[in-house]
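User: We ran a pulldown and think these components assemble together. Before we commit to crystallization trials, I'd like a predicted model of the whole complex to look at. Sequences follow.
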Amino acid sequence: MGPRGKQIQQLARLLFRLSLVDGAVSPERVAGVLSYVASHRPANPVGVLRAYHRLVAESLARSQAVVDHAGDVSDATLQNIAAAMAKRYGRPVTAVARRDPSLVAGLRVRVGDDVYESSIAGQLSALAASV
Amino acid sequence: MSTVLEQIEQEISQLSAKAGRRNTGTIRTIADGVAKIDGLSDVMYNEMVQFPGGAIGIALNLEEDEVGCVILGDVSQLKEGDEVSTTGKLLSVPVGKALLGRAVDALGRPVDGKGPVESTESYPVEKIAPGIIVRKSVSQPLFTGIMAIDSMIPIGRGQRELIIGDRCTGKTTIAIDTIINQGKINKVGLASGDPKFRPVYSIYVAVGQKNSNIVRTIATLEAAGALEYTVIVAAPAADNPANQYIAPYSGASIGEWFMENGMDALIVYDDLSKHAVAYRQISLILKRPSGREAYPGDVFYLHSRLLERAARLEGKGSLTALPIIETLAGDVSAYIPTNVISITDGQIFLETDLFNQGIRPAVSVGLSVSRVGSSAQIKATKQVGGKLKGELAQFRELAAFAQFGSDLDARTKAQLDRGSRIVELFKQPAFNPIPIEQQVATLWAMQKGYYDSLDLSKVMPAAASLRDFFATRKDALLTKIRTKAALDAELEAELKQAADEWKGSFGS
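Assistant: Here's a predicted model for the assembly, 639 residues in total across the polymer chains.
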């Protein structure tokens, strides 16, 4: 990363910090940041916004449990998962279901960088790796 | 068949017992064996990272919003956006006696086609060197089998002795000679059944070497019967820089196992110049700030933490290190040579001029030194070779002066004559280490003037003939010298009788 890239990262981080209210991304603040970038046009606005987008997406992913499932998942199960994750991470987490037939059976829950795998596809790949 | 099915079922039941958690990231960029990864928020420094397709990476740069990983293995299948995950493990290699006689890569995987390595234990590749309290001073000799080194620059078990010189000056040959000599000593010692005998196991780490050279080295060791006591760790020039960077540490871990388990080991790093170059490449791609000669700031630590792992431990074994450094045009004041010289306990400096004059091994006596000194020598060698280094140094000084004048006094002439005889005596063919007891006999004969009457060109054949004579006819005397390790009046008398007998047969 050159000096230019570093400046972009620094500005994106600054904008990201300004978008937080109590540690969570606030839609109003994000709108404010976007209008500021549109009106003030920093150097390489596309680069700044891309870096900003990545930071916001990472932050949002940390408070969202994406539940991949092959079979059916009831709302109660989703709520249970959300509650368990909220307890584990000590922050509010919402659960979103996403159908993925490639799992064969079972669930895969993703919260930020962490992946909790309890699916046949995951077990098969682990077995393949261990043999 | 049913046991195989049971094993698989057991594995499945273990795997399906609970949901596994892993910390993941995605590849943002990948180039030259280094990947920049988004995510991996839980990754630790030096942790192994699992890439798709079975490739392993090591997390070397932990930055605010990305992780820099070097990849060990095939990177051709990896692409941007691939998911990677942490393993919670540090990079480790298999260790133990099962590796003896084998050639493995930087991760301890066999590359010699002799099947899997039957090893049950593994050691982490990066380990903190032993501290002060557990260490013991170096006092036991490690014989290289090279007369010029064993008599003037003795190496002890647990020492770090650098072999430095230009290309094609015989650096690797000295290291291979030493390994072959250990093999020979091990064979004799283990056959004698002496409970006090401590074999030395060798590890040869080839970094950035040509594959053909590695194959030749293995063939040489095999032909000399030393391969069965040796582990080859190969990271050839065609390997990616990450493997070349890791290989010396893997070798050190394999050596540490012997040391920790009460055995003695010798490790050769061939060579650390190429290791530094591989590390420079990784560091530049990781965008670490570069310093002198574009090496990163921690290039000293790169080698100091590696060489500090060689030690002699109280109540345990030892690990002796022979790092090799290649200089350019004899420049020992370059960055990497000065670094490694300051870390090691001495150096064997090889000179191109000497090599071209036919003085092989081309050891420069003036610039070579062993900081452990004579404490790592047996008494017999001290008795016969204690003054040799001084005499040779004097000879070099006088020889430089003698070039300008022809009128020399008798004393100077005698000194020059003696010096040139010592130089002749120290010439030794490659891969032909001389056992220490034979070295003692050769040097004793020199000290007593047995070669003085001979023509200069006859000194080397005479010394070889003397050794042959002792090996074939005076084996009992050689065994006595080896076991007593010191010359007393009785042994000297026997030596004199044997040497006189030889003189009669050689003269005729």
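The two ends of chain B are 76 Å apart (CA to CA). That may be worth checking against your pulldown data before setting up trials.

User: Thanks, that helps.
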